[in-house]
Specification:
By secondary structure, this protein is of the alpha+beta class. Helices cover about 20% and strands about 35% of the residues. The chain contains three helices and nine strands, in the order H-E-E-E-E-H-E-E-E-E-H-E. The protein has helices at about 5-15, 60-70, 135-145, and strands at about 20-30, 35-40, 45, 50, 75-85, 90, 95-110, 120-125, 150-155. Strands 1, 4, 5, 6, 7 and 9 form a six-stranded mixed β-sheet that branches. The termini are far apart. About 25% of the residues are buried.
């Protein structure tokens, strides 16, 4: 993973402690309905495309930039399909990060898929019924991007103040006036 300059500066003063960072995942489909994946240099496993936005960069712009930087594919962002805080990650060098992932469905509009930086060993298009081995993170995001459901997020299961389990309150009609 290429480390952005702002993160290098932050790490210089923060050390290896947990950093809470934004993350953007791009699920890119072509006109044939295939999904774009990259085989990462760090894990040697197939993965969805993603990265960290630069300070002030909008999530959609980050998705488009990351896809091009990693795969040479031009795409447009279509919609947010998922927002989720993911578990902390400890990198081989000891740095710890936790990401608020924003997953965006994208549509390819040009370019030929190829390795375009040092983050990938391979890139390619895959039909959703013949995906290479992927982790649950990638599989769930592809599934959500294929659906027409509203943006997915983890529902609140406990009251943030009392930690009591949340229950659905019955809907009641508000006050009425006779006329």
């Amino acid at each position: 993973m290429a480390i952005p300059d702002f993160l290098r500066t932050l790490r210089a003063s923060a050390g290896q402690q947990l950093l809470w960072l934004p993350g953007v995942t791009a699920i890119v489909f072509d006109d044939e309905g295939r999904v774009l994946l990259g085989r990462r240099t760090d894990t040697r496993k197939w993965s969805v495309i993603g990265g960290i936005p630069e300070p002030g960069e909008q999530p959609a712009a980050c998705a488009v930039r990351e896809v091009f930087e990693e795969t040479a594919v031009h795409c447009v962002a279509e919609r947010v399909v998922l927002v989720q805080a993911v578990d902390p990650v400890t990198y081989p060098n000891g740095d710890i990060c936790q990401y608020m992932d924003i997953t965006i469905r994208c549509r390819a509009v040009g370019g030929e898929a190829r390795v375009n930086d040092d983050e990938s060993l391979e890139v390619g298009w895959f039909t959703v019924d013949a995906l290479p081995e992927l982790n649950e993170f990638g599989l769930f995001r592809i599934k959500q991007a294929m659906s027409e459901e509203p943006t997915w997020f983890d529902p609140m299961t406990a009251d943030p103040v009392t930690a009591a389990p949340m229950t659905a309150a019955p809907m009641t009609a508000g006050p009425t006036t006779a006329g």
